[in-house]
Specification:
The protein is α+β, with helices and mostly antiparallel strands. Helices cover 30% and strands 34% of the residues. It has 4 helices and 8 strands. It is globular and about 40 Å long. 33% of the residues are buried.
């Protein structure tokens, strides 16, 4: 699996050993459950090598998480953009969808800013979609 980076973060394979690189229980659990799985990326700060989140795609469904102390700093947007580059550009994914609660405005903002389009809002949930063709136009 390939990696991608910005000046601030690196997105690369999430491994089970990564659970030792974070104190965040959600990330430790994710590394244990998904470490080594295809299309599962760790979000790592380049200056400290601390893992601050993950992005994963299971089939078409995208999921992401950034630790609470690192939210609202643009890391989710950067991680999503890099992950889209890897998933569409290297992995050959054709379509991604994401679902989150409508009140999770930070997640919706990051998803839309990175290129996802609102497909629908239903029963308190936001449904976003991004196709490879749309990603190529970004």
């Amino acid at each position: 699996m390939t990696t991608a980076a910005t000046e601030r973060i690196l997105v690369g394979p999430l491994e089970q050993e990564d659970r030792a690189k974070t104190e965040d229980s959600v990330l430790r659990e994710a590394a244990t459950a998904m470490g080594g799985a295809p299309r599962c990326f760790a979000v790592t700060l380049r200056d400290t090598a601390a893992i601050i989140g993950y992005v994963t795609a299971c089939g078409e469904e995208l999921d992401f998480y950034i630790t609470p102390q690192e939210r609202d700093k643009g890391f989710a947007f950067e991680a999503l953009c890099l992950s889209f580059d890897l998933l569409f550009g290297c992995e050959g994914v054709k379509r991604l969808t994401a679902v989150c609660e409508e009140q999770n405005l930070y997640a919706i903002k990051a998803l839309c800013h990175a290129g996802m389009v609102k497909e629908k809002a239903e029963n308190g949930y936001f449904y976003g979609v991004l196709t490879a063709a749309d990603w190529e136009r970004l």
